[in-house]
Amino acid sequence: CKPGYFNLDPNNPQGCTACFCFQHSSVCDSAEGYSVHTISSTFERGDEEWSGQQQDGSTVSVQWSPSRQEVSLMSENYQRLYLVAPEKFLGNQILSYGQNLSMDFRVERRDTRLSTEDLILEGANMKVAVPLIVQGNAYPNENMQTYVFRLQEQPGYSWRPFISDSDFQKLLHNLTAIKIRGTYSERSAGYLDNVSLVTARRGPGVPARWVEQCTCPPGYQGQHCEQCTLGYRRAQPELGPFSSCEICNCHRHSDACHPDTGNTGNTGITGFIDCSNSCSYCVLKQF
């Protein structure tokens, strides 16, 4: 891989993956100690907290079939209804970047009206979506078929709107919704089974070589350069790990400050000195 990229992978059409490192470094390599992990719903014992939603956000009922072990939605008209993933699929899913989200899906009848938003991902105040039939997937019919979507921003994967690789990872870092369209025609049902999200976790198993280990510049630390080192603070705390780190400004009264707020503290026998960002004034707190 050329500088700024890592993990030459035969399963990746792009070959190598760009270093993410919360945009603080372009030097990285594959992290050790991570193995392939899958988050899944097989609906063997219930709906597994999947919910139904209309386009306007209002809720609709999800049906679970104990015999077929699948969930479904029934439409009354041509309005799209979505199956919404539960919490275990959401949150920080950055380790799923470049990996697959897959599912088994069928419809009651073939009167299928596809859209540009058959699968929707939301997070970090962004939204991307794709039609069901992109990335080599077939039109839905009465038989269960497997649909696979690669979570990467490359043009051939047809995510719209097109966003940068760093924004796609930012979305996955704070994934707030996965919505799978469940209905495609009037008075017809759609059936979902075997939803799977490939990710990674620490521990033994098949190595997950797509997980990065970053080499951080001065002021940054952590596997992904997501933390400020001692003597540095967030320049824009509201951005969290995406904020740059800057040297603490304490007028030579302290060598360290809180990495997020910039406040400086020294613990003594009589109390705690709580200083402002610039250490221009202090307040003595008794305890």
Automatic annotation (TrEMBL):
| Superkingdom field | Eukaryota
Q: Outline the extent of the Laminin IV type A domain.
A: 45-213
InterPro entries of this UniProt entry?
A: Growth_fac_rcpt_cys_sf, Laminin/Netrin_ECM, Laminin_IV, LE_dom
The record lists the membrane-crossing segments as: none
The protein's matches in Pfam families, at most eight in alphabetical order, are given as:
EGF_laminin, Laminin_B
Write out the entry's keywords from A to Z: Disulfide bond, Glycoprotein, Laminin EGF-like domain, Repeat, Signal
- SUPFAM superfamilies linked to this entry: Growth factor receptor domain
Indicate what this protein is called per its UniProt record.
Answer: Laminin subunit gamma-1
Tell me what organism the protein belongs to. Answer: Xenoophorus captivus
